[in-house]
Design brief:
Oligomer: single chain
Number of helices: 8
Strand content: 25-35%
Order of helices and strands: EEEEEEEHHHHHHHHEEE
Organism: Smutsornis africanus
Protein name: AKP13 protein
GO cellular component, one term: actin cytoskeleton
Helix content: 25-40%
InterPro entries: Ankyrin_rpt-contain_sf, Rho_GEF
Number of domains: 2
Distance between the termini: 19 Å
Strand order of the largest sheet: 7-6-2-3-10-9-8
GO molecular function: MAP-kinase scaffold activity
Shape: elongated
């Protein structure tokens, strides 16, 4: 999801000013309809939807003109695959509150991946997290809410801050338990805030401590989603395209 898709039109389908094009993705249980942006008379751009499973779906390019029926211009297949970033996001989501699993993730810190790899990891895992269907009761601190803030323990927020994952930290802050995790000490006595300060992550420390801290710039190019029952609408601010997703 949130990747750019380019559609090249044939000569006879070149865009007239009053024609609007849509892409319709039809999966086994979910359907997506995206608007498109005209790049030039022969090309369109849109954003790929985040799908609910790995499968091959049918994609139809539809043309709409006021006063005329909707026309299916072309059809093609499109495959959604699960990558390592999605696996990582699923693992992290399921191990929230699992001390053994969270302690296991600390080996990543000892291996110290290069900054470029960290940035790539941050972008991909945060994006995958956005497309996960998290349970309504999901919490950054795990399922056991009886634990008090005084009990030292590792949290998902410690993990994100330790590696300097700005986008993932922002995502977790918006979720239940995200703000509460900021004051929890781990077994070494470090909070996510003190970890950011200790490691010199200035942007991250600012994000955690300033009430008016804004979302990371890289985050603002992603889709903003509004849910309503079995439907959701996304607006991708970068391309100014919209996507309607409906569960069948």
């Amino acid at each position: 999801g949130d990747s750019v898709i380019t559609v090249e039109l044939t000569e006879e389908d070149k865009i007239e000013d009053d024609v609007v094009f849509y892409l319709v993705f039809t999966g086994s249980t979910v359907q997506h309809c995206t608007s498109t942006r005209k790049i030039n008379p022969g090309s369109l751009e849109t954003i790929s939807p985040g799908h609910d499973c790995c499968e091959t779906v049918k994609v139809a390019l539809c043309a709409s003109r006021e006063g005329h029926p909707v026309l299916v211009v072309a059809q093609e297949s499109f495959q959604f695959v699960q990558d390592e970033a999605y696996d990582a996001a699923q693992f992290l989501a399921t191990c929230a509150g699992n001390q053994q699993a969270l302690n296991f993730t600390r080996f990543l810190d000892r291996s110290r991946p290069p900054a470029a790899d960290v940035d790539f990891l941050d972008e991909k895992v945060a994006l995958a997290f956005r497309h996960l269907k998290l349970p309504a009761e999901w919490n950054v601190l795990g399922a056991d809410q009886s634990l008090t803030e005084n009990i030292p323990r590792e949290t998902l927020m410690h993990f994100a801050v330790r590696l300097g994952l700005l986008r993932l930290t922002w995502f977790l802050l918006q979720k239940p338990g995200g703000r509460g995790a900021l004051s929890i000490h781990n077994n070494e006595g470090a909070t996510p805030v003190s970890l950011a300060l200790e490691r010199g992550y200035q942007k991250l420390h600012q994000l955690l401590t300033e009430e008016e801290a804004r979302e990371p710039d890289s985050w603002s190019t992603l889709s903003h989603t509004v849910h309503s029952g079995d439907y959701s609408v996304k607006h991708h601010r970068g391309l100014d395209v919209y996507m309607l997703t409906a569960e069948a």
